[in-house]
């Protein structure tokens, strides 16, 4: 039976109740790979090239700073999710800590972000396959991908878990291989290569060739590249052992992902001059492998990027459907979306997939206005979500210590000081976005969407007769 909005989770049950009657078909290996693979997408493989072009070698510092912020956010989210596993994740925590309006705002903003992202990933994946099969129109390829992953998510959750496990394994294997080859080249033991030393790190204008402005651009790009880690706490509610699962996944994923991101950037800028045009045009991974003379490097990376895009599509349809289902189960949306069949919110899966496909059609029909508006609107949503996570943890931690200290399986480091430090860091990122022409418009659009959702959520809260969820 689903837990009602007025029922606290049972404290003597090894499998805590969640906010919806979903199945528990995910295993620990699924969670671990979802945590590792969910954040490794095309943004890392391709998008990081633009960041390197702006920041130069200091991109390593940019990724380290943003990585530290993300690690704090994930630790906070891990603490709350281990204490109260829920398919609504941070939306549920925000509702418990701040009020229904906060859960409504964070949840529907994230749902909107994921649905638009599904469309973007579909477009990117279709573009790659269209290059191999030029006779097949891109819209048809997108339709095939949508049908495939919609079908995967309509079936049992273990199907989603298996897809993500193997997708993530391939992505992680590719990055590990890249790091091994890169380190061998850096120390000069790879055949036909010589150790570059510090030439590329200190030459071509120095470590920060474009000064603080270049570092800021790289920092902003790196912050948003880390988005996607939140999915593991959504998936944890459907795992065999939610508390242990999310605790282990969060603990192991954070430092590994930091190594993948920061390590990759360090290898690229050590081996190649940051001014190399191929870094921005081909992507840093392809450019580095071409430089090292690895045969068919571009084809290999295209396959990896395609897998990364398809993996993200699968994960985002899953995350969007579970978030929508959770919101509806708490009286925060249309009841039809919350209908669960066979342990799966199938109506939410269909609606989330359909919205993603509409975004694809808009990219073809109205790329310069409506679609661009959608892109700008989702620009800073992940920062809004992180803000709600930090604010919720700040409030819930004291409540948990007072009422249910045994639930604190994962604890935020140096509470409350590092929580405040994370909030301060987010405020700095918001300010930096407002200073940059390229990101200011995204901040405005995202701010407008967040304000509209907050107003709707507050009105619903004031007029609702339901009792907020207990902590």
Describe this protein's structure:
The protein has 471 residues and is mainly α. 71% of the residues lie in helices and 0% in strands. It contains 19 helices and no strands. The two termini are 19 Å apart. InterPro entries: AA-permease/SLC12A_dom, Amino_acid_permease_CS. It is a multi-pass membrane protein.
How is the biggest beta sheet arranged?
none
Please bin the fraction of helical residues. over 70%
The number of strands is: 0
Strand content: under 5%
Radius of gyration, CA atoms, in whole angstroms? 22 Å
Protein name: Amino acid transporter
Keywords: Amino-acid transport, Membrane, Transmembrane, Transmembrane helix, Transport
Organism: Streptomyces violascens
Membrane topology: Multi-pass membrane protein
Give the helices and strands, then pairings.
Blueprint: H1 28-37, H2 42-55, H3 59-83, H4 90-97, H5 100-132, H6 138-154, H7 157-186, H8 199-202, H9 211-225, H10 231-235, H11 242-271, H12 277-281, H13 284-291, H14 297-329, H15 346-365, H16 370-377, H17 381-403, H18 417-435, H19 437-463
Helix pairs in contact: 1-7, 1-11, 2-9, 3-9, 3-11, 3-17, 3-18, 4-5, 4-17, 5-6, 5-14, 5-15, 5-17, 5-19, 6-14, 6-15, 7-11, 7-14, 14-15, 16-19, 17-18, 18-19
């Amino acid at each position: 039976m689903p837990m009602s909005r007025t029922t606290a989770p049972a404290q003597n049950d090894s499998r805590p109740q969640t906010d919806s009657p979903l199945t528990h078909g995910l295993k620990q290996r699924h969670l671990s790979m979802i945590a590792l693979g969910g954040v490794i997408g095309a943004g890392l493989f391709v998008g990081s090239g633009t960041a390197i072009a702006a920041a130069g070698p200091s991109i390593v510092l940019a990724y380290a700073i943003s990585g530290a912020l993300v690690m704090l956010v994930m630790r906070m989210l891990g603490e709350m999710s281990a204490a109260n596993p829920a398919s609504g994740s941070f939306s549920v925590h925000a509702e418990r800590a701040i009020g229904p309006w906060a859960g409504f705002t964070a949840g529907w903003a994230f749902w909107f972000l994921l649905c638009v992202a599904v469309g973007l990933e579909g477009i990117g994946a279709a573009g790659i396959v269209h290059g191999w099969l030029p006779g097949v129109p891109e819209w048809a390829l997108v339709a095939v991908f949508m049908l495939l992953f919609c079908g995967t998510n309509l079936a049992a959750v273990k199907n989603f878990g298996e897809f993500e496990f193997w997708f993530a394994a391939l992505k992680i294997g590719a990055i590990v291989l890249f790091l091994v080859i890169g380190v061998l080249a850096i120390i000069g033991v790879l055949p036909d290569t010589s150790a570059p030393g510090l030439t590329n790190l200190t030459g071509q204008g120095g470590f920060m060739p474009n000064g603080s402005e270049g570092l800021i651009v790289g920092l902003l790009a790196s912050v948003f590249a880390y988005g996607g880690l939140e999915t593991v706490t959504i998936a944890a509610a459907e795992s065999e052992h939610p508390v242990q699962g999310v605790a282990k996944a969060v603990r192991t994923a954070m430092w590994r992902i930091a190594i993948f991101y920061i390590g990759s950037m360090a290898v690229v800028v050590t081996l190649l001059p940051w001014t190399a045009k191929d870094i921005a045009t081909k992507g840093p991974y392809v450019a580095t492998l071409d430089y090292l003379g690895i045969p068919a490097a571009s084809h290999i990376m295209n396959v990896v990027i395609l897998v990364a895009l398809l993996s993200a599509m699968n994960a985002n349809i899953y995350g969007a459907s579970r978030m929508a289902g959770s919101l509806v189960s708490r009286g925060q949306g249309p009841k039809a979306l919350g209908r669960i069949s066979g342990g799966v919110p199938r109506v939410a899966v269909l609606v989330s997939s359909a919205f993603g496909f509409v975004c694809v059609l808009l990219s073809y029909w109205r790329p310069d206005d409506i679609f661009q508006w959608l892109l700008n609107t989702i620009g800073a949503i992940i920062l809004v979500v992180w803000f709600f996570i930090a604010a919720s943890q700040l409030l819930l931690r004291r409540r948990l210590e007072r009422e249910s200290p045994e639930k604190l399986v994962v604890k935020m480091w140096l509470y409350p000081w590092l929580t405040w430090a994370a909030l301060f860091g987010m405020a700095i990122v918001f300010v930096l976005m407002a200073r940059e022409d390229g990101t200011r418009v995204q901040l405005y659009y995202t701010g407008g969407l967040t304000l509209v959702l907050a107003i709707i959520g507050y009105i619903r809260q004031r007029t609702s007769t339901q009792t907020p969820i207990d902590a």
